[in-house]
Design goal:
The structure holds two protein chains of two kinds. By secondary structure, chain A is mainly beta. Chain A contains no helices and eleven strands. In chain A, the strands form two sheets. In chain A, strands 2, 4, 5, 6, 9, 10 and 11 form a seven-stranded mixed β-sheet that branches. Chain A has a four-stranded antiparallel β-sheet with strand order 1-3-8-7, with no helix packed on it. By secondary structure, chain B is mainly β. In chain B, the strands form two sheets. In chain B, strands 1-9-8-3-4 form a five-stranded mixed β-sheet, with no helix packed on it. A four-stranded antiparallel β-sheet of chain B has the order 2-7-6-5, with no helix packed on it. In chain B, a hairpin with a 4-residue loop joins strand 5 and strand 6 (about 60-65). The radius of gyration of chain B is 13 Å and the shape is globular. Classes of the chains: A mainly beta, B mainly beta. The interface of A and B includes residues 43, 51, 91, 103 and 104 of A.
């Protein structure tokens, strides 16, 4: 089946620094990728929709200047958490729409901001 | 908001069938029922989806009622590795540039020895 690779799996950073998370579709092209965030014991919440070659669409309440999304190719989308703070600590998950309209998910990135 | 209602948690004995119910009474005619599961600290995994006919694959079976207002995911022989949160999601299949999935709280299935 289709594979979505997400990197890194976990990251620890100091408050105020920026962190970049990569999401790659390994064996298919994805014009649309989605970024989710999940806090402990809660469900996944959609943050933004990433479209190749155009600006991302952010959900209400998600700061576009804080969570920078770049989808420069059909197989790569990146999420950069700028000036990260402890409240940004969360599990970030990307997904890509593959053949047959199934969504395939990355393995997630656990971000811990000290 | 999610359009589905699922029990918060369920237990199942290893080797037995796990039947996970889902209510989606407001489902529209063009919306499919999707099931995903999330094992702890991993990304969600696709299981199965269907429109109105029952579906079966190597992982599970999906039974959709005739009025499409509810469905049941069946894991025929649950193993300890099936312990996860199971999400039932309704969505139009061709969602255009969106097509994202809206996750509810899901059902935490615990498979016990």
């Amino acid at each position: 089946g289709a594979v979505v690779s997400q990197h890194p799996s976990w990251v620890i950073c100091k408050s105020g620094t920026s962190v970049k998370i990569e999401c790659r579709s390994l064996d298919f092209q994805a014009t649309t990728m989605f970024w989710y965030r999940q806090f402990p014991k809660q469900s996944l919440m959609l943050m933004a929709t990433s479209n190749e070659g155009s600006k991302a669409t952010y959900e209400q309440g998600v700061e576009k200047d804080k969570f920078l999304i770049n989808h420069a190719s059909l197989t790569l989308s990146t999420l950069t958490v700028t000036s990260a703070h402890p409240e940004d600590s969360s599990f970030y998950i990307c997904s890509a729409r593959g053949q047959g309209e199934k969504l395939f998910f990355g393995s997630g990135t656990q971000l811990s901001v000290l | 908001d999610a359009k589905t209602t699922q029990p918060t948690s369920m237990d199942c004995a290893e080797g037995r069938a796990a039947n996970l119910p889902c209510n989606h009474s407001t489902i529209s005619g063009n919306e499919y029922v999707y099931w995903y599961r999330q094992i702890h600290s991993q990304g969600p995994q696709y299981i199965i989806h269907g429109l109105k006919n029952n579906e079966t694959n190597e992982m599970a079976s999906l039974i959709i009622t005739e009025d499409r207002k509810s469905s049941t995911l069946i894991l025929p022989h649950a193993t300890l590795r099936d312990t996860a949160v199971y999400y039932c999601i309704v969505r139009v299949q061709y969602g255009g540039s969106q097509g994202n999935l809206i996750f509810g709280k899901g059902t935490k299935l615990s498979v016990k020895p």
